């Protein structure tokens, strides 16, 4: 084969590879998911559509994120024995309020803590007090506090402040509203709070940056309580610049693709030299 | 006494950071199982409000399953005297505690029913279900009563079990308490206490326990007087001594640390209780024709199961002192065990001037 012929072949090969990479970069994220990693998209809905109601049609068009759950690291006995493996999370906002609709499978609705061995099913949503810094996932730290919205199936919702495990204290009055249904082996809980917050240590949502959020679920009939719980990683609400927040996945796919091109070109060059 | 004060101070092993330690000695040879203590405690602290099933003070028949049923098999406590690893424990079921029964008083007392008086429910277990049953066969059956409260332990595994640090040992007197504001009803203390002396209140949604009647010992009673815990003061045979373990002039210190005849229940749980028992004596066994034979009625190995190996020496010491008195001699030990003077039995103001 002549030298020139070899060059042309290499150039053609490189072009094909670049085309493939660009295609992969655009199609790839769509195949994985249509949004950046660990994002809970927040859809605008009208207050008239009653998003507080877990069965409201307002939720039909709000995308759901499947959030994997795992046992929280904790020093309480049997901390690694938890039962809920994933939850579905949707989020919406009206002009005034932020809503979260959370739903998970649980074969028994444990509402009554009527005896010494009975525990209620429960759910918690955790957000940082200071939305510009990510606190330690296990209930923050004394320097980086978190708000915890804690709903228990025995009927109460508490708004808590925490700075590390075992430190929760109640806000005097909870600003979080909760409505729930249990149907066909699934809890569905809608929690909401006003976007604005003027109270001390209450997370503001009317901000220009992404806001971290994490979830925890307890299955009462498995005696899950306290640190024995299923928890998520940090997720975020995309309140930052751009309609969807930083598109991490697309960026990663493109970087990976360009790296492949680089390697291919270097390889082609090396082959030509020999 | 005063010359070896320093040496004895070192012997009194108090929990870290505790100034003094309240303690109680119960002489099991005097308990008649009347439950006056149980009722005194219940009417003071655990009537209504989700507390009906709780007995901060209970009196159970031994041998027997106790309250809650089979609490001795429910785990908790520490793995060793190092106190660095706890034993897993279980929360007893409501059935094991038994419910507070409602009775058909209304029908019988007011509506002229001639039914027998009985619970409205159909219970299959409850506190004292096996009362006076004991063990052994006629004519050598045996049992005794065991009054139990929280031991306000020196190494309380209940405190250690709480992930919220809602439980603590009071600095001034070592009383173990639950901060009701911090408690979130997780019940790790209930499973962590090997004596099952923390109870979950399903109405308040917090755990609760014996408070050693601290308002009484603080002098919050009528006329600002100091009283011993109600279970002690109300006991007809006055079998409880109340005071401080580190009050070296008091009978508790002498019985526990000098004569070593007052022993903790189940020392192998390693929580180091501050309630101590004088182990029970019983008449010897009888032959079929009613003659006394030289065999102990309550098997020693059973007492050893409850009070540990030291029970042998304790019983021997008491026996020796009794012989001494029987021969016309004097015994400080027996004087203490038979003292009826409340000022000497309840020494709760000895450290008030500090
Ligand atoms: S008896 Fe149980 S509840 Fe009381 S201090 Fe000891 S471990 Fe705690
Ligand atoms: S009041 Fe005294 S004698 Fe009666 S059961 Fe209680 S401890 Fe025993």
| Distinct helical segment count of chain A | 2
Strand content of chain B: 5-15%
What are the secondary-structure elements of chain B, in order, as H or E? HEHEHHEHEEHEEHHEHEEHHHH
Corresponding CATH architecture of the largest domain in chain A: Sandwich
Q: What number of structural domains do the residues of chain A give? A: 2
Number of helices of chain B: 13
Biggest sheet statistics of chain B: 4 strands, mixed
Inertia-based shape of chain A: globular
Structural class by SSE content of chain A: alpha+beta
Beginning-to-end CA distance, first to last residue of chain B: 21 Å
Which CATH C-level class of chain B is it?
Answer: Alpha Beta
Topology, number of strands of chain B:
10
* Heterogens: iron/sulfur cluster
Order of helices and strands of chain A: HEEEEEEEEEEEEEEH
| CATH fold type of chain B | Alpha-Beta Plaits
Helix fraction of chain B, binned, reads 25-40%
Specify the overall morphology of chain B. Answer: globular
Q: Which oligomeric state applies?
A: heterodimer
Q: Look at the structure and give the CATH class of the largest domain in chain A.
A: Mainly Beta
Bin the helical content of chain A. 10-25%
Pfam family, one (chain B): Fer4_11
Biased composition (Basic and acidic residues) (chain B): 80-89
InterPro entries (chain B): 4Fe4S_Fe-S-bd, DMSO_Rdtase_II_Fe-S_su
Domain 4Fe-4S ferredoxin-type (chain B): 22-51, 141-172, 174-203
